[in-house]
Design goal:
It is built from 12 helices and 14 strands. It has about 375 residues and is α/β, with parallel strands linked by helices. The strands form 3 sheets. Strands 2-1-3-12-11-4-5-10-8-9 form a 10-stranded mixed sheet, with helices on both faces. Strands 6-7 form a two-stranded antiparallel ribbon. It has a two-stranded parallel sheet with strand order 13-14. α1 links the parallel β1 (about 5-10) and β2 (about 35-40). α1 crosses α10 and α11 packs across α12 (about 355-370). Nicotinamide-adenine-dinucleotide binds near residues 74 and 293.
Length: about 375
Amino acid sequence: MPTRKLLLLPGDGIGPEVMTEVKRLIRWMNDNGLGNFETEEALVGGCCYDAYGVSITEDTMAKAKAADALIFGAVGGPQWDGVPYDLRPEAGLLRLRKELGLFANIRPAVCYPALADASSLKREVVEGLDIVILRELTGGVYFGEPKTITDLGNGQKRAIDTQVYDTYEIERIARVGFELARKRRNKVTSSEKRNVMKTGVLWHEVVSDVHKREYPDVQLEHQLADACGMQLVRWPKQFDVIVCDNLFGDMLSDVAAMLTGSLGMLPSASLGEIDAKTGTRRALYEPVHGSAPDIAGKGIANPIAMLASFGMALRYSFGMVKEADLVDQAIAAALAEGLRTPDIKSAGATVVGTTRMTEAIIAELGRLAAA
Ligand code: NAD
Ligand code: IPM
Ligand code: MN
């Protein structure tokens, strides 16, 4: 079994709490012959700012470039509200995404059978839901220049963010979307605002061209991003893969999270281009949720988004499809037992903390692996 080098970046708030649970899972996999992982840890986010005055160090950037995969917790929190913009905790994560070229952010929203009643939407709307939000992650308004606040000198200021997309950026994310769809239910919904934004016009044109040229077998539909948000809560099962820009993807994936019961359920994989020589790609795995300052330190954070993100690392970085499936099945089984962290609790369920939830998932994993 090849040795896989993981760089663990726990971050702030509940980040370290859920990372502790991934470490538990990694240890268990190593001890039981299901993997051979070597881990190293580094600071990123607010904790890194407190220690070094920056949200990520050059040393950590170098380690990130050398690792087989990065496992990221969450960053940010109100205690860093006053930090200069360029040094804020979130800047560390954005630098990782940009410099590692992690342009394809896969955010699956799956409603586990046991959780159909945990969503704020009706059971029939979410039961059996299995969709993917594919978010472009290294372009758009997140990184476009100019990005400034200027004092106009008349008591007014002007803030500018710039939304930029080049053809190649839209082409490569569209390809990831079509490839994903081919392995699923063969449908892509492309979402933009071509009625208002030039980037939306180009997005629509390029996705349509890629479809016609390379993926005519996949069903493609277009939805304006505002309507897509509405359709996501009206009848989400109409979707298979939704492909959208960086900002719309950020919004739509938090919306999609609530279809699964909680933000604490949504994992994600951020992938770079495949290196033609080595066949490998840079990758970072992180839950969609943030540092959850309101529950940090209480031991009640839902570890499932983080554990499932590690499952995505097994699937997308290491080709360990069987083990990745086992992790997903173990999560489903622990939920079916009736165990719930407070964010997904429902009548009759056993409410447990972060560690108990993980221990139950690992116990199920042990049973499933032995079966
Ligand atoms: P958040 O995702 O941290 O929390 C939103 C709500 O969801 C909170 O009520 C929280 O308690 C709940 N929640 C989130 N994860 C949960 C979990 N695993 N289990 C149970 N409940 C969970 O979003 P926010 O409060 O808007 O942001 C807090 C900070 O996190 C901000 O600084 C933000 O920039 C940052 N953030 C970081 C990331 C990241 O590091 N990838 C992602 C989103 C937000
Ligand atoms: C996410 C987060 C990040 C984003 C923040 C923390 C920079 O909300 O990963 O969804 O906006 O991309
Ligand atoms: Mn977000």
